[in-house]
Amino acid sequence: MSENIELFCYVIGTPANDVFVIQIPSSRSIAHLKVSIRDKLKPRFDNIPANELLLWKVSIALDDNFQQNIDSHNFEDTESLLAVKRLSDLFPQPPNPEHVHIVVRRPQLVSAVPPAQVQNQINLRVTNNFVLDDEQYDEENPAAIHDGRYGTHRNTTLAPPLELYHPVFAEFKAHLNNPTLELPPDVVLNTMELMVATSEIKTLESERINVRGIVEKLCGLAIMKSENKDETKPDYIFPVTRNSPPIEVALVAVVEEKSELGVNGDPTVQASFSYIHYWADPSHQLLRTSSCCPSFIIGIAGPWVSICGGVLTGHPIVQRLTDYIWLGHSRIIDEAYTLRVAKIFYSLRLAAGSLYAYYLNSEFPLIKKSRIRFFPSITSYKVGVQTVRFEYLRPLEPEDADDKLIVVKFAERYGEQAHRLLAAEKLAPELLYFGPLTSPQEAVKYSYGNLYMVVMEYIEGCTVQQKFPTNTIPLELKKVVQKARECLSKASLVHGDLRKPNILIPKKGGIEGALIIDFDWAGEANKVRYPLHLSSAPGLWVDGVEPYGLIQAVHDDAMVDRL
Q: Where is the Crinkler effector protein N-terminal domain (predicted)?
């Protein structure tokens, strides 16, 4: 019976104090040692095949100079330990108990696509609200990131909230907003360690290797490198390898680091491009076409961190889930702030764990032209105790003539009272549901902020803007709109946007059956306000209408008169 050998191991890229010990029979091989190391580092190394770990035998004193000595070594792949080597041959005598004996490096992921081809690989295109199909993509039109930034052309880069496309982002927000969320001690201690580490002034990104190890511990996932053939690469990623079809490597999170904020650009922007480069690779085609490719995008610059999320629909959509958070350790009495930062990282760990499980365990349709990624993930609403489930068919455009049962929209505010009042008078489509996106039980896990879901019956027809784009509307039609306006006025309500695009002429019923739609701004007169971002196009509004101004009954009257 062979004796156990005790080996101190160190993973390249982690802090020096993360050295760990492996006890293993000396008769075992390096292949067995790799399995033991992977098992020791669960769950961070769950997605890493043990045989892909690279090991080197060293004898480096674990003292104050350890990190410097490690950094001075050049660990060549060709010099790594062979899997068949026996530990008894490598260590004929018990190794020094005050030294590190094995250095470990995780495998790198290599992408096959150079950045010049990235835009041609995405094959995505956006419409005003959602997306077009892959086949309608114009390859000469760059796939702009929809993050709210725009160039001189001022084409819109606004997009629906990320959490509509995948609930993991709503989960992240729910954890952030949960006042009873308990923080594990290791998260608090690792957060403190990160704050101290990022407070040190570093002039080179390569000097921030300890930060990466701490971020890895905070996220609870294993870091790997990803590289394109032209050698462009993100600083590091958190991947997950699927074990069932499609057998692909998904991206849970991508991280970019800068030595300081303002040096060599914004790391969140660079990380956004790294996110696109990763998912554009042909090796991710099946996952890309059967999901919206949700990933977390993390930028670190000196003592600052920002967490974003990304999805692929018609265009890449990237939105900030946090602002830039100060990580510097600058106050003697600072526990409350440290706990606040720890809560952010713990929320990220929990959500990233859910995303990891989503990619690992979900069944994805093995078809190349799936439409799943184009639509929100919300597919049901409640009517009393009954759950009504629905399937998205296509984005609703103004000229849409398809017969549909319902129309689903999402809004931060909605004039439910005004809509139901006019619907009761047959002056608006029936409102089937207005309320939160989740049940009270689910709201604990998923937070959609101020978003509400609106479900109404679908009425086939056209808008007044489509039928009478430049002409004055017929008197019969104007009388219907005036009747709707009077109903609202009697209840001290306003619509706020009684213009041609918001008056529907049904295919069945014609002008006399006209309906008012779009109650986003409706509510109590002189209490509800116009939105902050109101179009400034000349001639669009009546006198008195202004951004964030109170909506008055006289505005509705003036809009009806102008029809």
A: 5-105
Which residues constitute the domain of residue 184?
115-361
In a domain, 244, yes or no: yes
pLDDT digits (tens, 9 = 90+) for 111-164: 433 333 333 333 333 333 333 333 333 333 345 677 777 665 556 677 778 888
Cα–Cα nearest to 216, from 358, 398, 14: 14
Distance separating alpha carbons of residues 56 and 121, to the nearest angstrom? 38
The answer to whether 56 and 102 have CB atoms below 8 angstroms apart is: yes
Residue 428 sits at φ, ψ, to 5 deg, of -155, 155
Backbone phi, then psi, for 298, in 5-degree steps?
A: -120, 130
Residues 505 and 557 in one domain: yes
Residue 202 lies in a domain: yes
Residues 6+ apart with CB under 8 A from 389: 379, 380
The model's pLDDT over 250-298, given as tens digits with 9 standing for 90+, comes to 999 999 888 777 666 788 888 888 888 888 888 888 888 888 899 999 9
Higher pLDDT, 2 or 125: 2
Residue whose C-alpha is closest to residue 236's, from 278, 202, 189, 285:
278
Q: Both 98 and 143 in a single domain? A: no
Sign of CA dihedral 435, 436, 440, 442: positive
Question: Are residue 426 and residue 349 in the same domain, yes or no?
Answer: no
Classify burial at 457, counting beta carbons within 10 Å of its beta carbon; exposed 0-12, middle 13-18, buried 19 or more: middle
- Helix, strand or coil for residue 410? strand
Element (H, E) at 416: helix 416-424
Rounded mean pLDDT of 530-537?
84
Looking at the structure, tell me whether residues 448 and 503 fall in a common domain.
Answer: yes
